[in-house]
From TrEMBL, chains A, B, C, D, E, F, G, H, I, J:
Pfam families xrefs: 1-cysPrx_C, AhpC-TSA
Domain Thioredoxin: 1-160
Family: Belongs to the peroxiredoxin family. AhpC/Prx1 subfamily.
Coiled-coil region(s): none
UniProt protein name: Alkyl hydroperoxide reductase C
Active site annotation, chain numbering: 50
One annotated Gene Ontology cellular component of this protein: cytosol
EC nos: 1.11.1.26
Subunit structure comment from the entry: Homodimer; disulfide-linked, upon oxidation. 5 homodimers assemble to form a ring-like decamer.
Primary enzyme class: oxidoreductase
Keyword Zinc-finger belongs to the record: no
Gene Ontology biological-process entries: cell redox homeostasis; cellular response to stress; hydrogen peroxide catabolic process; response to oxidative stress
Length: 190, 190, 190, 190, 190, 190, 190, 190, 190, 190
C-alpha cells in the first residue's frame, strides 16, 4: 500500500461540534488531498477497544491540526450511528474530527482492510501525504490497542523527510534529533 | 494481511555469533511456527536508515528472546552480502538474529511488500503468533525510521490477549495496565 | 422471490428483554424453519420512518406470536448498534423480537433488497412459511410507511390456505370470510 | 426492483367500454410515463382468486383515476382471451381499465414475476411514478388475495412524498395524518 | 423435423365431453407414444381461421379414431381458456379431442413452431407414428386454412408404408390405389 | 421456416423444351423474387416415388403458370443427371419447369431439408411469395406421395390473402368460397 | 496423402454385370483392405472427359485384376445415377468394377479431393496397398485426361518394391528393368 | 491442391552451367509466374532413385524449354549441397535447371509435401500454369520412380486446354489427337 | 540452458572410418548419457568457416576421447550429405566422430539454436555431462571461428568440479592449477 | 540469442575510480549502443569464482577500452553492495568498469540467464556490437571459470568481420592470421 495513491470515495460523515451536536457532511477523496491526513479505521461503534483508541486520538487532535493534519475515523456504521454514539459516550464525545460512515464498505475495501466475511474494518491506521499518497500504515489484530503518540512521531518524521529532500530519519527519531544525508561515502559506513 | 497465515518459504540466512562470524543456515516457514516471530523487512544492505533500525532492534533482541520471540531481518540481498555487511558495519555487528537472504523475492512477495519495479522490500514489520498468523503489521515509507520499543509494547499486548481470552487491551496499553472484558453491558458505555 | 426458499445465513442479533437490556444471540436460517416468520428490513438505525414502522410492528408482536409467527427486524447496522438504539429510543424500546445485525450484507443480498451503492436495505417485508418458503413480499420506497395490520391480514390468509388445501382466499379476505374451492365448473364463472 | 425504471414493452390490450364491448389498443412503456400507474399481474383468465381481486380493483378505479393513476392488468393470456372473459364474467365486466395480453412473457419478465416453468405471472402489484420508476411492490402467493384499499393508501403516501420533498410518512399513514421532516436533531430521537 | 423423435413435455389439457363440459387432464409425451398422433397447432383461442380448421378436424375425429389416431390441438393459451372457448363457441363445441394448454411455450418450441417475438404458435400440423417419430408435417401462413381430408389421406399412406415394408405410395395415392415396390430394375424406369 | 426469406443460392439447372432437349441455365435466388414460386425437393433422380410426384406436378404446371407461379424441382443430383433422366423417363419427360442441380447441398441446407448423413433432400415443398418469403411448407417421409391439387388450393388461398388484406380463408377454402374479415366483434363468435 | 491410411467410409455402389444390369452393393473401407486398390475419382456422371478415362480404365481392368488390384470409381452422383449411366452409355457399359455413389461427399472429403463450393470431386487417382496405405496419387485439372497404362506401370513398381524390400525402381522403370539396392557405397555415386 | 495458386517463397538455388560450375541465384514465386513451371520435389541429395528421375527430367529439359516450361528441382538440402552433388555425380551433372535449396522447409510445406517427422520432401511433381495455378500433381511413394515422358504428355494437354477454351482432352490424349467440345447434346452420349 | 537436461532425439549419422568410408548409424539422446559429450553445431556442409572449426576439433578428438568425451557434430544437412562431404574435403576427411543429420531440425530446436527463418543451426557448442546436463555453452556469430583448445580447458575444469565436490576452478584455470574450496570464511575475502 | 538486439533496461551502477571510491551512475540500454560492449554476468558479490573472473577481466580492461569495448559486470546485488565489495576485496578493487545492480532481475531476464528459483544470474558473457546486436555468448556452470584472453580473441574476430564484409575468420583465428572470402568456387573445397 505504501506509495500508492488513495482511491475515489464519497461518504456521509458526522462532524461534531459538541456532544451529540454537529452536522452531517459529505467527505470525498478530493477533500483529503492538499493536506496531510490520518485514516483511522476501527471495527464498530459502541464496542470496546475502539473508544479508548478514538479518545487517545481525540486528545492528539489539536497537536495534529497544528501540524496541518486532518483526521478521519472510519467504520462500517452509518453517520446516524456515529452521531448517536457521540451523544451517548463520554469518550467519543471528545471527538471533533469527521466520523465517516462506510456502511457500503467502499473505503475499507479501497484501503484493503475489510475483514472478509465480517463486514467490519480492521483496526488500521494510514497516514496520507498532501499528494494523496500513503506514507505510513499500521494494523493490529482484534484486542491490541494503538498508540497515538507513536503515530504523531511517525507523521513528524514523514513531514520532515518531505520538507527536507535528501534527509532521512533514523530509528526512533524524535523532532530535533539528528537526521542522515545519504551519500556514496556513507555506504556501508552506518 | 492481519489474520492470514504466513506462506511457505525456504531461505539461506547468516546467523551471526560475533562480528562477521557465524554460520550460514537454512530457515523455512516451518522453523517459524511454534514461537512468536518478528519479520523485519528493509530495502538494502549497506544503506542508511536500515542500520539504525536494525541496531535499535538488536538492542531489544534480548528482551524479545526473553518474551519467546525470534527475530528475522529480511532484504533482497544474499546471505553472502549480509555476512559482509555484518563484518564491516559497527551497528550491524550488534545483530545476533538470523539475517535472511531473499534475492529470489519469495518472502517479500509472500508478505506483499516487494516494491514494484525496484526489486527491494518495503520498510515493513510483521508480528507472527505461534500459529503462524500475522497479528500486527506496520510499514513506513522510505526515510521514516521505526521504533523497536513500540514494537515490544504491541507484542506484549498481543501476547496478553492470546493468553487471556476474553480480555482486550485499550489504547497505549503497557504491561500491568488495566484491560477490558467486553460484555453486553459495556456496549455503548465506554 | 415468491415460492423460493430462504438461503443460509448466520447473524448476531440483539434480543431485548427490557429497554436496553437483553442478550446477544446468534440467529441462522435453521432457526427460522419450522415456524412462520416475518423478515422486516429497514435502512438504518437511528433514522426516521423506520422507528414508526418498527413500533407499529412491535404492537402486533403479541398477536403474531399468538399466530405462531416469529419476527426478525434486519438492517445493515451491527447488533451493538441495535442494542444502543433500543436503549435510547422510546419507540424502539417496545421491541421484543430479535434485531439482526447484517453489516456483512448477507441477508439483504439473500432477499435481493440491498440498495446498490448505498450499503442499506430496502424497506421490505417478507413472510416465510414453516418450510422456509417465501409466501408474501412487499417493498415500499423511501418515505412510505408500511402497515402492520395489513401484514397480519395477509399472514392469516396464507396460514388459512396452507391449512386448507383446495381453498383460496378472495381479495380483502378477513378471518371468517368465505373462501373459494376452485373447480372446473367454476372456470369462467367468477 | 424499487427505484428501477420500467423497461420497454409493446402489448395488445383489450380496453372495455361495456360488457364484452370496447376496442383493441396497443399499449407501450411510452404510454405509461407521465402519469402514476399500477401494473396488476395475475396468473390466468377464467380462474378463481383473480376475478375477486380484479373486481376489488375495478371498484377503486374511479378513485384512482381521480388521483391521476392509470391501471393496467396483465396476464400471459392474449387480448382475445381478455375480451372473451370480459364478455362472460360478471365480475370482470366491471373492469374499465386496459387489460394487457402478455402471451410473449415480455412484461412479466421485465418485472421479474414470470413463474419459472409455468408460463404464468405471479400475483404481483407495482406502483410506478410519472418518471417510470417503481415506488411500491407487493407479491402474494397463490391463493392469497390482495387488498385494493391498502394499495390506494400506499399510492397516496407515495404521491405525498413526491409532492412534499423533505417529508416522510410514518407507518399506517393515512391522508391528513402528520408526517415527519427528517433532520439531524431527530436522529435517534424517534 | 421429419424422422426426428418428439421431445418430452408435460401439459394441462381440457378434454371435452359436452359443450363446456369435460375434465382437466395432464398429457405428456409418454401418452403419445404407442399410437399414431396428430399435433394440430394454431395461434390463439377466440380468433378467426382457427375455429374453422378445428371444426374441420373435429369432423374427421371419428374417422381418425377409427384409424387408431389420437388428435391433440395446441395453442399458447391455458386449459382454462380452452374450456371457456369450448363453452362459448359452437364450432369449438364439436371438439372431443384433448386441447393442450402450452402457455409455457414448451411444446411449440419442441416442434420449432413458436413465432419469434409473438408468443403464438404457427398454423402447423405434425403426424407422429407409434414410435414417436414425425412422419408428415405441414405449415401454412396466417390466413391460409388447412384441409383435414388431405391430412387423413396422408396418414393413410404413412400407415400403409409402415404396415407394408418395401412398398411406397405414389403421388395422390388414395386407399386402394396401386403402390410401388422399388427395385434395381425399376431404376430410371418410372 | 414460415415467414422467413429465402437465402442466396446459385445453381445450374436443366430447363427442358422437349424430351431430353432444352438448355442448361443458371438459376439464383434473384430469379425467384418478384413471382410466386414452388420449391419441390425430392431425394434422387432415377428413383421411385419421385417421378409420380414430379409427373403430378408437371400436369399442374400450366395451371400454376397461369396463376403466376414458377416451379423449381430440386435434388442433390447434377443438372447433367437431370438432363439424362428427362431423356430416358416418360414421366419425367413431361416436365417443363427448371430442374435444379444441388450437388453442393446449398439449397437443401438453406431450406433445412438435407437428410443428415445421407446427402439427399427430404420430400419437401415450399411456397414462396413474390417477396421471397415462405408462406406454406410441407414434408412427407420416404414413401408417402404428395398431392399437387392440394398444393394448388393452398397457393390460391395464399394469393387471395395477399391480394385482399384483412381477409382470411377458412379451412378447406376453395376459390370462390366465402372468406372471413377478422374484427373485435367476431372474437369468440366463430 | 502418401503414406497415410484410408479413412472409414460406407457407400452404396452399382456393380455391373452387363449393360445396365448388375446389383446394388454396399462397399466399405473394410472391403478395400487386404488387396491392392485403385480409387478413381471423376467429377460427374453423364459428362465428357470422364467416360473416356473410365473406358481407358475399364480396358485395363482384366490386367489389374490379374495383378490383384480392385478398382473403385467414385463421383458425388448416387448409385441410381451410375446404374442409369451404365445403361445408356456405350463406353460406360464396358465397366465391370464397382461404381461408388458419394452423394454425401464422405469419400471425396476423406481423400481431400472435393472441389470447394462445387460439390464435385477432382479428377484424382489413388493407389492403395493391401494395408490401406496410399502409395501413389495423381490429380489433373478439368479437361486433362489421365492414362491407365502409366497407372499400371506405377502399380507394378509399387508392388515390386513391396515384394522386394531393399530394392528401389528408377525413373521410367518397367517390369523386368533393373532396380537399385541402396547402400552407403552408392551414396553420391548415382 | 489443383486450382490453388502457389504461395510466396524465397530460395537460394544453384543454377548450373557446366559440371559443378554455375552460380548461386535467388528464386522467388514472382520468378515463376508468367511461364509454365514444373516443381520437381525429391527427398535428398546423394541418394538413389532421385538421380535417375532427375536425369530423366534433365533429358526432357530442352523439350520443356521449347514448350515454354521452366523446371525447378527442390529438396530440403542447401544450395551448397546441390552444387557439391552436381560436381560429383555424372547423372546430376546433366542438370541445367535451377536446383532450389529448401532447408527451411518453406516450399515443401507450401505444396503440402513435407514428410512429417522426417524433414524430407515427398517424391512429388507439380505443374503450374502462367497464372501460378497448379494444374497437375503426382506423388509416388519411396522407391517408385516417375516418368518424364508422361509428364510432358500431361503438360501438352494442359497447354492445349488453356489455349483452346471449350475443348477438353480425352484419356491418353497425345498432341494431334482429337479433343472434345462439351455441349448439352453430348451429355450422356459419350 | 545451463543446468537443463538434453531432450530426446533420434538422428541418422555418418560415422567415418576413413575418407568417405564408414557407416550410417542411429544416434539418440540415450546414447549420449553416461559419458561426457560435446554437441558441435555449424550452419551447413560444403561451406567456409565450418571446415576449419571441424578440423580444429578433429585434431583434439584423441585428447577428448582420452578424457572420456564423445563428440557429435550437427548440421541441418542429411547424413548422405555428410558422407559426401567427408569424401570430397581434405579437412573434413580428418573427422572420426559421428556427424549427425538434423534435416528435421529436432536437435537444433532442442538446444535453441535454429536460426529463425533460415533452416540452419547457429555456430554453437554445448558440453553435456554424463547425466545429460548441459554444463558449458558457447555461440559465435557467422564468421567468427571457435577454439577447440579453450573448449578442452573448460571441459577439464567441469570434469574437475564434478570429480571434486566442494572445489571450484578460478578464471583461466588449467589442469594442475590451484582450485578454491568455498567457505564462510572466504566470503568477501577473494 | 545470437543476432538478437538487447532489450531496454535501466540500472543503477557503481563506477569505481579508486578502491571503494567512485560514483553511482544510471546505465541504460541507450548508453550501450554505439560501441562494442561486454555484459559479464556472475551469481553474487562476496563469493568465490566470481572475483577471479572479474579480476581476470579487469586486467584486460585497458586492452578492451583500446579496442573500443565497454565492459559491464552484472549481478542481482545492488549497487550499494557492489560499492561495499569493491572497498573490501583486493581483487575487485582492480575493477574500473561500471558494476550494474540488477536486484530487480530485469537485465538477467532480458538475456535469459536468471536461474529459475534462485534469484541469481548464470556465469554468462555476451558480446554486443555497436548496433546493440549480440554477436558472441558463453555460459559456464557453477564452478568453471571463464578466460578473458579467449574473450578478447573472439571480440577481435567479430570486429574484423564487421570491418571487412565478405571475410570470415577460421577457427582459432588470431589478429593477423589469414581470413577467408567465401565464394561459389570454394564450396566443398575447404
Amino acid at each position: 500500500m505504501i506509495g500508492k495513491e488513495i482511491q475515489p470515495f464519497v461518504a456521509q460523515a458526522f462532524k461534531p461540534t459538541a456532544q451529540g451536536k454537529g452536522e452531517f457532511v459529505e467527505v470525498t477523496d478530493g477533500d483529503v488531498r492538499g493536506n496531510w491526513a490520518v485514516f483511522f479505521f476501527y471495527p464498530a461503534d459502541f464496542t470496546f477497544v475502539c473508544p479508548t483508541e478514538l479518545e487517545d486520538l481525540a486528545e492528539q487532535y489539536d497537536t495534529l491540526k497544528g501540524m496541518g493534519v486532518e483526521v478521519y475515523s472510519v467504520s462500517t456504521d452509518t453517520h446516524f450511528s456515529h452521531k448517536a454514539w457521540h451523544e451517548t459516550s463520554e469518550k467519543i464525545a471528545k471527538i471533533k474530527f469527521p466520523m465517516l460512515g462506510d456502511q457500503n464498505h467502499t473505503i475499507a475495501n479501497n484501503f484493503g482492510v475489510l475483514r472478509e466475511g465480517q463486514g467490519l474494518a480492521d483496526r488500521a491506521t494510514f497516514v496520507v501525504d498532501p499528494d494523496g499518497v500513503i506514507q505510513v500504515m499500521e494494523i493490529t489484530s482484534e484486542g491490541v490497542g494503538r498508540n497515538a503518540t507513536e503515530l504523531v512521531r511517525k507523521i513528524k518524521a514523514a513531514q520532515y523527510v518531505r520538507a527536507n529532500p535528501g534527509q532521512v530519519c533514523p530509528a526512533k527519531w524524535e523532532e530535533g534529533d539528528d537526521t542522515l544525508a545519504p551519500s556514496l561515502d556513507l555506504v556501508g559506513k552506518i
